[in-house]
Design a protein that fits this description.
The protein has helices at residues 9-14, 64-68, 108-123, and strands spanning 18-20, 25-29, 35-39. Helices cover 21% and strands 10% of the residues. Keywords: Nucleotidyltransferase, RNA-directed DNA polymerase, Transferase.
Length: 127
């Protein structure tokens, strides 16, 4: 059997893991000094067992953006955000349709010149 594991970059960085894409392996130094090698598909040697551990729960105070802007992140996130005054809005008109108009109007001679310039650039491989 097989299984997939998703590990965040913060966790890998905190544990000083090394990702070797060429060998398809992740090396994680363990507290006892040994190195745990997690092999990708088709391991070259017998894979070792992995133990499942529960990570510490991340707190808002651990995130540097929250530390820099505490007034933006309330302590209590138990419900919806409070009602706030709307600073900007666009009133929609019932039944209104998008404007159907050419963005740039060119005279027939200008259109012909533009077309020939584009064709020349295309032939030269610029477009």
């Amino acid at each position: 059997g097989s299984f997939d594991v998703i590990i965040g970059m913060d966790w890998l960085s905190y544990h000083r893991a090394v990702i070797d894409c060429y060998k398809n392996v992740v090396c994680i130094p363990l507290p006892n000094g040994e190195i745990l090698e997690v092999q990708g598909e088709r391991p070259e040697k017998d894979p070792r067992s992995l133990a499942c551990i529960k990570a510490d729960e991340k707190k808002l105070d651990d995130i540097w953006v929250v530390q820099d802007f505490p007034e933006v992140f309330p302590d209590d996130l138990s419900g919806l955000p409070p009602m706030r005054e709307i600073e900007f809005r666009i009133d929609l008109i019932l039944g209104a349709l998008p404007v159907v108009k050419s963005s740039y109007r060119l005279a027939p001679s200008e259109m012909l010149e533009l077309s020939s310039q584009l064709k020349e650039l295309q032939e030269k491989g610029f477009i």
